[in-house]
Write a structure and sequence with these properties.
By secondary structure, this protein is an alpha+beta fold. 24% of the residues lie in helices and 40% in strands. It has two helices and five strands. It is globular.
């Protein structure tokens, strides 16, 4: 089990990115959340198998149809939050 926080930069708000990310995370059986930040980025905390986390990070550079991701910051989390599902915070 691994836990990572992602800060996703670019045109990622108002383009269906969070909904897309939520569907991808649920399909990979990841736990955590995704939410918009007031600064224009999207934040995601994901917990799961390392291979699945790497897969969603690779897919996240493409994202939803209208998204334009410029970069993704990855922060390894030492403390594993106790999430039981994946949710999109509105």
């Amino acid at each position: 089990m691994k836990a990572v926080k992602l800060l996703i930069h670019g045109k990622v708000q108002g383009v269906g990115y969070r909904r897309w990310f939520e569907k991808e995370a649920i399909a990979l059986d990841l736990k955590g959340y995704v939410m918009n930040l007031p600064t224009g980025e999207v934040e995601a905390v994901i917990l799961g198998a390392e291979a699945d986390i790497l897969k969603i990070i690779r897919h996240s550079y493409v994202g939803s149809l209208r998204a334009q991701v410029s970069r993704i910051e990855q922060i390894q989390l030492q403390d594993f939050p106790n999430y039981h599902e994946f949710t999109m915070i509105r």
